[in-house]
Amino acid sequence: MAELKPRWGQPLTGIISLICFTLIAWVLWYIFSDPRGFVKAFPYPFVMYLAMMILVGLWQHMFCGDWPFQDMPQPLRGIVETFVNLAITWFVIHIVFYKILGLGFNFLSQDNLNAIASSGALAPDIAAKFAEANAKSLFGQRAVVCFVLIGFFTYPFVTILFGKWPVRPSDLPQPMAGLAEIGWCSLITLFFYTALIVPFWGFIYGKAFGSSIGLSLPWWDGISGITHVHWVFGWWEWMIVALFMTANVWRMKPWSSITLPQPLKGLVSFLCIVVIGYVVALICVKIAPIWLSDVLHHIEGATPEKIAAEQTRFLWYHAAEIAGFTLIPFLIWHHYFDDMVPMDNVDSWGGFWFRTAGVMVLCVINYIFFYYIGWGDWGLGNPHWDHKFLHGESLVWNFWWIIPLLWNEWFFHKWPFYTHSH
Predict the structure, then answer these.
(1) Handedness of CA 288, 279, 233, 307 (dihedral sign)
(2) Measured between alpha carbons, how far is 43 from 396 in angstroms, rounded to an integer?
(3) 363/92 Cα distance (integer angstroms)
(4) pLDDT tens, position by position, 340-358
(5) Which residues have C-beta within 8 Å of that of residue 246, sequence separation ≥ 6?
(6) Whole-number Cα distances in Å, 334 to 35, 246, 309, 346
(7) In a domain, 167, yes or no
(8) Count of domains observed in the chain
(9) Domain that holds residue 183
(10) Would you say residue 118 lies in a domain?
(11) Over the stretch 268-314, which tens digit does the pLDDT of each residue have?
């Protein structure tokens, strides 16, 4: 098997890679999302497409092993897989969600919601209200993004924590093995989506625009003090970070110490990550007012209770934003700096804690650069910079920023930054 080696040694290979990925992401951002650019698709539908692209890329690489393109030479393989990714992304959104799942669930189809808003079928007292809100908020696109949010954890965690159990170990060839994993993980995703996301849409359509009893209402208001789905976003995003830190800079620690067989090992690891994700998110919620007190004072509401609820909603979503600032640090450190540490053994517990602390420090630097040095304004053209914290748009950039890195690692096998030696 060919061994990957950094073309220019370390840390130069990592530095060059980071600069290249940042420039690629920035140029593509300007073309497709920046309000000063050409397409101006900010934040929607841009965020929906980029989120689904990552999920589809995960299916292609992690589940299907790049089948059937795995033997193609680079960079042709990477180029072909990229175009296939774009085609599948379009199909999943516009056919699977909008046309197939949309046959039964209007809230998953932006096309259906647009048709309802213009059909005259709604009662006059809510028709105008719904049409205005749908045009502004694009509820169907947001519901698809919520599915991807859940899927960012529930698709890869079977590979990372459960060692692909129950599909592996087996002699299933590709694409059957990959399709089996997609089917199994989709079932798990639907369970979590139903429990954690659907009640919010029950609130939107059952309370704000009608009295439907077909969907349940949020059950977490007694826990979080809010009915908004951003409570889920806050801790779920930190669960995603803990999961991918496991596979990246943690080098499978500490779960590699668990000697239980599968699926018990995976279940214990999963429950621990749920706790880690919630605790870290809660810490962010509690400490963020230290530096955002003035921001909280500018949050408005009709009553003191509504102001307090809106402040809580903001803080839970901001916890997800903070998590997003860790993405590039732990991904680039693992994949393109080869988990470098000052210790001799990169797999030591000293290396584990050094990289963990380092990612947190880089997260803070990333946060400061975006919000206080103004990267979101002069760099990305954020249209809401007067209220920069309140719109939660750093997460969009941080997910977009990782796409060139993931594509290069997944589809291009680190070409041209690494060489293959036999």
Answers:
(1) negative
(2) 7
(3) 32
(4) 999 999 999 999 999 999 9
(5) 160, 161, 252, 253, 255, 269, 273
(6) 33, 11, 39, 11
(7) yes
(8) 1
(9) 37-219
(10) yes
(11) 999 999 999 999 999 999 999 999 998 998 888 889 999 999 999 99
